[in-house]
């Protein structure tokens, strides 16, 4: 961990940007540890925290963008299969990833950075599902912001004991990912309940409409009958 801190001290923001970009594009670079180092250096005054987080968000979104565009292409499914090629059953993982995205939609991008494996498949899945570019950028940027703030904040708070912070990296991702996923599920459930309530109200209105029309038609019939009698 100290080696990464010294590396960031020597090269500054440029190496932070490069490390986060490389991690998110799929290279074996420990992106969260670089964010921890940036947070610790911000606590000591050697880096500014806001620019560091901003660069991390930009690097993450720029790295996710090619995967999203690849998913939007004609061979989007093959891109997903390429990511799962080293797994024991690529077809199963492809199907499972698509089912997960179909269940939660683009909001899965909010937590994907915290879940190993999901962070790799979420951008191409967004492309495969034809999520609009603007919608993808919005969700991906917010997810990148949560990811960058969480790990750099952890480094800021535990700046005097980064080894302990590094040991909590996996746990922080799991806890925050679970909280965000729970929030998404509660929100989706609320929307579903609201939609069913609106459908029920619309159905009741449709059932009552013929009765009103019939009651309005009766007086006119009476009037017409009286006029014909005259």
Tell me the helix content: over 70%
Strand content: under 5%
Sheet with most strands: none
The whole-number mean of residue pLDDT values reads 81
Radius of gyration: 27 Å
State the helix count. 10
- Overall geometry: globular
Counting structural domains, the number is: 1
Multimeric status of the protein: single chain
Low-confidence runs of at least 5 consecutive residues: none
The tally of beta strands, per DSSP, is: 0
Q: Alpha-carbon distance between the termini? A: 103 Å
List the helices and strands in order: HHHHHHHHHH
Supply the helix-strand structural class: mainly alpha
Describe this structure in words.
The chain is built from 10 helices and no strands. The protein starts with a helix and ends with a helix. By secondary structure, it is mainly alpha-helical. It has one domain (2-193). Helices cover 81% and strands 0% of the residues.
Structure, briefly:
This protein has one domain (2-193). Helix content is 81%, strand content 0%. The chain contains ten helices and no strands.
């Amino acid at each position: 961990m100290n080696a990464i801190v010294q590396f960031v001290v020597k090269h500054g923001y440029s190496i932070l940007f490069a490390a986060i970009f490389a991690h998110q594009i799929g290279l074996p670079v420990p992106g969260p540890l670089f964010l921890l180092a940036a947070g610790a250096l911000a606590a000591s005054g050697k880096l500014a925290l806001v620019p560091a987080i901003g660069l991390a968000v930009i690097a993450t979104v720029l790295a996710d963008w090619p995967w999203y565009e690849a998913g939007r292409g004609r061979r989007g499914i093959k891109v997903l299969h390429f990511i799962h090629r080293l797994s024991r059953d690529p077809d199963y993982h492809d199907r499972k990833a698509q089912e997960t995205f179909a269940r939660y939609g683009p909001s899965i991008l909010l937590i994907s950075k915290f879940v190993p494996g999901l962070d790799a498949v979420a951008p191409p899945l967004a492309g495969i599902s034809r999520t609009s570019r603007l919608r993808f950028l919005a969700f991906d940027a917010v997810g990148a912001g949560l990811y960058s703030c969480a790990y750099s904040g952890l480094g800021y708070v535990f700046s005097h004991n980064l080894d302990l912070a590094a040991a909590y990296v996996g746990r922080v991702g799991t806890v925050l990912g679970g909280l965000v996923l729970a929030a998404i599920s509660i929100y989706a459930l609320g929307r579903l309940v609201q939609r069913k309530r609106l459908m029920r109200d619309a159905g009741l209105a449709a059932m009552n409409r013929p009765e009103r029309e019939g009651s309005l038609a009766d007086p006119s019939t009476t009037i017409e009958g009286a006029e014909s009698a005259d």
